[in-house]
Amino acid sequence: MTQARTNAFYAQSGGVTAVINASACGVIETARQHTDRIGTVYAGRNGILGALAEDLIDTSLESPEAIAALRSTPSGAFGSCRYKLKSLEKNRREYERLIEVFKAHGIGYFFYNGGGDSADTCFKVSQLSQSMGYPLQAIHVPKTIDNDLPITDCCPGFGSVAKYVALSTLEASLDVRSMAATSTKVFVIEVMGRHAGWIAAAGGLVEDHGIPVVILFPEIEFDEAKFLARVDAMVKQHGYCSVVVSEGAHHPDGTFLAEQGTRDAFGHAQLGGAAPVVANMIKTALGHKFHWAVADYLQRAARHVASATDVRQAYELGARAVELALEGRNSVMPTIDRISDVPYEYRIGVATLDTVANVEKMMPRDFISEDGFGITDKCRRYLAPLIEGEDYPAYRNGLPVYVTLKNQAVAKKLPAFALA
Amino acid sequence: MTQARTNAFYAQSGGVTAVINASACGVIETARQHTDRIGTVYAGRNGILGALAEDLIDTSLESPEAIAALRSTPSGAFGSCRYKLKSLEKNRREYERLIEVFKAHGIGYFFYNGGGDSADTCFKVSQLSQSMGYPLQAIHVPKTIDNDLPITDCCPGFGSVAKYVALSTLEASLDVRSMAATSTKVFVIEVMGRHAGWIAAAGGLVEDHGIPVVILFPEIEFDEAKFLARVDAMVKQHGYCSVVVSEGAHHPDGTFLAEQGTRDAFGHAQLGGAAPVVANMIKTALGHKFHWAVADYLQRAARHVASATDVRQAYELGARAVELALEGRNSVMPTIDRISDVPYEYRIGVATLDTVANVEKMMPRDFISEDGFGITDKCRRYLAPLIEGEDYPAYRNGLPVYVTLKNQAVAKKLPAFALA
């Protein structure tokens, strides 16, 4: 247990979100309140790569205003990376390098902000530091739009994507409803979530607004005939309908809808996503005019319409991570523990990383309606509070004021290190 | 000149927008302030089709609150349609039918809310009513996200799309900047605008935020080698870049980028848009990992982040249309006349429909940078005030409160009418 004053290291990992910087803000602001115990907070430039390359950012050079502005800035302010450390056995060298860098810069606190893979890395770094006798407290700060971390009720980043998807589906559906008499009758929107349908499920929230919607989940094997019959029935009843398709929607043989063997004029493999495939299927079978959208990064970067619940939780989990470190905890992750749906109440709990690493939380089957094309009331009760509240960024000249930090590098002390 | 009290007819035409209902709100609220001169405002269900079919909506049955809520509701509250009346010579029958329906329901004011085609229809209806001796004042209310109407400085609907595109490009670009070290280096977003690059131009506003962006306009013939060289240079200089591609971007022979002969496994014509084509081109030539988005309806329905300038102007033009009618004007359209860029000042002017109908306003060449991939300062000065200001809708349970009207039909008085 670290009691002396020591520096901290913070890094962002994997796909960034609308609120991962809110967690960074929570970490840094809370650390700054404890200068007796925490010296400088260093950030890894481009995530854990910054630690491996000893490319550290000195966050103490950022003004309180700049750090506060992180709360309303999407993306990863220090850069993130897609780089998964191999197992300890296969690449012990990289783990040891991390410890060396931490040692060289007097770092006793390691805050790693990411999803399942980074929880695993965080866990291993913690184990290795113990076996090497280096005093390090490794705390994982949860983040993933995929909402697939175990134990925590939800993951920061997800609520804002869910709000974006529900909102976009609502707005586009009203548009289609206006046009359906003579023009577009089906609108297809493709959303993220290769393994789990949490994000696609959010599209189901528009049913409360009277919008007919059909959802294609990765959890449900695609049945073209059944799907087309459902769309046909919706259009016959309402005059129009919207389809929310997960990028992970797939055929019974496991191939994604997006991979249907499309080739361009030069024979290159298909270019499009699932949305155009589904839209074309509807056009061919039912003859309806369609429009389709692929939200892609827009959904996870949409800080302008972030969920206030999500922003608050992202901040709180970052802040709590620092408190856990100060309380002497190691190899843990703060969690959202839901107390009640209505009124929405939760407390911040804590999970040990051995129970988090390498466990994926899938969407329960009873969140998906029996026919597989919609969400249940249970799912609705789960999702509703997560999109609650607006937390608008400031605007200047018609666009949000998002901060770009100075990100000044710390002088290196070690020899260069080549990645495996 | 109508001096007696008479009813009014209002219809929405063509693709709907985030603010066309704000114009409807302006028309109806202003008409309700002049009950001495204007009786009931009838709306056409699904635009002009409602007039032809004598399917009129009685807007007097909607509460003041519901009408006020139109100001912050996207889409077309009464339904719109894509239906262009043929020339007077070719289908005089339809024009005469309109007059018959107006006569049957005591309608002396015709407010038509749309783009170039509807301005033309409005003009012809006005001419025919005069030649038939039926007292009708036809006023066109401008609306088009394409921003291509002449005389008026801008068109309601455009400013909000421009804001959405600039904002989305900004947010997604920050995301890519975070990921570029190990993952995505190029983000491609496809936007609307088949004939003119006004919407794509809005993506250029993010350059003020330090974002490297390459724009593909419909006005500039696509040159693959030059484009790839530009993207390559941007990525080399900044580590990443964003591409905003207009759906109207095309090769020198006129074929759209989206139509590059892609076939699916069944030989169906291509499914995707321009964005995946451009992204794949970059991947093939430069090897960069990419992400792409197609905003489609999301951009024109995005009332949640509408431009306050746009909402205000949409309302004002609707209101002014009614005043023009009360002033005895016929065959005119209220316009936005810009007085100055900074501070932004404008007044509401008026144009006669003979000068509006069938004239498309293209983007001036000096709004596009010399190399064809960006916007000029002149364009920036033009666009900046149009995206200025936020006008948030109210929210309930995490989603905007958008109104759905009762849209109760008026009893028919005429025999049915078959469309040609």
From TrEMBL, chains A, B:
User: Where does it reside?
Assistant: Cytoplasm
Pfam family for this entry, one: PFK
Catalytic reactions on record: beta-D-fructose 6-phosphate + diphosphate = beta-D-fructose 1,6-bisphosphate + phosphate + H(+)
Q: Which cofactor does it need?
A: Mg(2+)
Keywords of the record, alphabetical order, are:
Cytoplasm, Glycolysis, Kinase, Magnesium, Metal-binding, Transferase
Q: Where does diphosphate bind?
A: G15
* Active site positions, chain numbering: D146 (proton acceptor)
Q: Which domain of life is it from?
A: Bacteria
How is the activity of this protein regulated? Non-allosteric.
User: Where along the sequence does the record put site: Important for catalytic activity?
Assistant: K143
Q: What is its main location?
A: cytoplasm
Pathway(s) of this molecule = Carbohydrate degradation; glycolysis; D-glyceraldehyde 3-phosphate and glycerone phosphate from D-glucose: step 3/4
**Looking at its record, which EC class is this enzyme?**
transferase
Q: Where do the Phosphofructokinase domain residues begin and end? A: 11-324
User: EC number(s) of the enzyme?
Assistant: 2.7.1.90
What does the subunit comment say?
Homodimer.
Q: What does this protein do?
A: Catalyzes the phosphorylation of D-fructose 6-phosphate, the first committing step of glycolysis. Uses inorganic phosphate (PPi) as phosphoryl donor instead of ATP like common ATP-dependent phosphofructokinases (ATP-PFKs), which renders the reaction reversible, and can thus function both in glycolysis and gluconeogenesis. Consistently, PPi-PFK can replace the enzymes of both the forward (ATP-PFK) and reverse (fructose-bisphosphatase (FBPase)) reactions.
Please name the NCBIfam families in this protein's record.
PRK14072.1
Query: What is the protein name stated in its UniProt record?
Result: Pyrophosphate--fructose 6-phosphate 1-phosphotransferase
**Gene name for this UniProt entry:** pfp
